[in-house]
What does this fold into?
Amino acid sequence: MATDPDYVIDTNALVDLWRRSYPRDVFSTLWGSLEQMVDSGFVIAPWEVYRELDKVDDELLDWAKGHKPMFIQFDEDLQSTLTSVLSDFQELVNLDAMGPDADPYIVALARDNACTVITQENKAGPGGKAKIPNVCDHYSVNCLNLIEFFREQSWSF
It folds into this structure.
């Protein structure tokens, strides 16, 4: 990577960007800006995000294949942080889900690299199952949704 990362992006943020709210053919400037950040190493994601994207063979997966360096494999240090996150928040993993669950990896990667998380998840209310924003709060990791991320970057489209 050319630089230290600033952001760790969640699968749901990429899915929301591509498939739901900001398709590349309409928001090409947004995607160009995001790709510059990805290619410069400012935006990363754990390999498990790639594995979640790999569940659907579409243009977003093709995009991810073209940006594989952004997807980080966990080394021993990251595994240690992941173990800590899972110890504190077992409910972050959906044991009934088929396939990868990137949520704990996202928080661990952000925590280990002092990054901000970009996710479309909302905080769980009192007594609810912890979500990424709740876990980020616990570890004092900054967490933004897409609109907040766009504003932080001073992007307008």
